[in-house]
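Wed. Picked up where I left off yesterday with tRNA (Adenine-N(1)-)-methyltransferase. The coffee machine is broken again, so keeping this brief.
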Amino acid sequence: ILDQRLQKVVSYIPQGAVLADIGSDHAFVPCYCLQQNLIERAIAGEVNVGPMEAAQGQVALVQLEDKIDVRLGSGLTVLTPGEVTAVTIAGMGGTLIASILEEGKNHLSGEERLILQPNVDAVDVRKWLLANGYALLSEAIVKENEKIYEILVAEKGEESLYSDDSEQRDWELYFGPQLTREKAPAFIEKWQTEQQKRQYILEQMQRGNDSDVLQEKMANIERLIEKMK
Ligand code: SAM
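Structure written out below (tokens, as returned):
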């Protein structure tokens, strides 16, 4: 049984996909997908030996060695272009996800669906997708155990979720085009919490250059909250 966050990630994997789960840790996603007959086969990629061994152990436990190939290596570099039809990268910061995509983009054919779940800094993932010709197909937000997670789904193609207006687009890159429109309770709560954190930091900080940057970011979030009322 998967937690809600990973259930949501899995819900965007096309039926019959060949999946690469990068940063797979215990390989829960590929194991679950195969047990549910959602996918044909999978590659579980891990950069660290401990989690890779955990993946191997789990795959052996559920006797899926013939369907899941556990590979040690950084990010997408464990893949040969065209080998998979869907890629999941979940449970890491958005900055790391964006760097995994950038460093490994030559290992993608461009036909894959990308399902990305940044814990923080989703803006970095959206920027990478936009700069690399990926269209955002869908965004979701999930609250579980007092944590809020964003999920971004993308495929190569013409971008359609973003506004044409460049100022609005910058705003949407930061907060998410679909999420901004939907205003789900978890989304509102996420940015209110983020704002409180910044408020706290600001109060702790001595006056200096840094506070100007933070104040500008806070002004943006304040405007978002106002708009949502
Ligand atoms: N994907 C699982 C999830 O969402 O529950 C596990 C998330 S776990 C917090 C992050 C995993 O990513 C760790 O096991 C870590 O070793 C792995 N990781 C970090 N950087 C990586 C990279 N460049 N390539 C492959 N795996 C990486």
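Quick read: The first strand starts at residue 17 and ends at 22.
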